[in-house]
Amino acid sequence: MLTTIAIAAALLATPVPPPTDPLTTEIGKLDAKVFDAYNRCDLPAFSGYFDPKVAFYHDTGGATFERDAMVDGVRKYICGKVKRELIPATFHVYPIKDYGAIEEGEHRFCELATGRCEGIAKFVMVWAKQDGAWRITSVLSYGHRAATPAEQRSAAGR
Q1: Mean pLDDT, rounded, for 48-67
Q2: What CA–CA distance (Å, rounded) separates 110 from 78?
Q3: Are 38 and 114 in contact (CB under 8 A)?
């Protein structure tokens, strides 16, 4: 009897992860597609996820207000140099009534030449759903910093 109570208590004390809502699942899949194209430098596919008038704010790189300029920055500074990895525990999605969703999280950047993941940044992306298609209308990329030794070790074990 005591064993049954102990087992029941242990089961009740075990945290059950909350179910992922459909919007979070959908935006998560879109995030994976956007950054798969980014990491492969498939710039036509990458560009297709952004509104032509996307507002992109980067704390160290400045602001751009046009998709082609943003994609050109990726071509110059990202392609063949780094890849982006989402830090899954930081990923959150919030609905925007009658518009779309806000995605926020953190990601790390890994040097392709060395495989070392030494940079981390926070991001927010605003997604609009228009005529059944999702497009990113605004991006905030900020808080760029060096990864701590623990974060580098964590990335190495991924």
Answers
A1: 97
A2: 10
A3: no
Residues 125, 103 contacting (CB under 8 angstroms): yes
Q: Are 127 and 104 in contact (CB under 8 A)?
A: no
Burial of 70 (C-beta count, 10 Å sphere; 0-12/13-18/19+): buried
| Phi and psi angles of residue 2, each rounded to the nearest 5 degrees, phi first | -60, -35
> What are the start-end ranges of the H helices in 15-64?
22-40, 43-47
Three-state DSSP at 146 gives strand
Q: Torsions phi, psi of 23, nearest 5? A: -65, -45
pTM attached to this predicted model: 0.84
Residues 84-102: tens digit of each pLDDT: 999 999 999 999 999 999 9
Q: Please list the helix, strand and coil fractions of the chain in percent, rounded to the nearest 5, in that order.
A: 35, 40, 25
On the 0-12 / 13-18 / 19+ scale of CB atoms within 10 A, 31 is buried
Phi, psi of 27 (to 5 degrees): -70, -35
Phi, psi dihedral angles at 105 (to 5 degrees): 170, -165
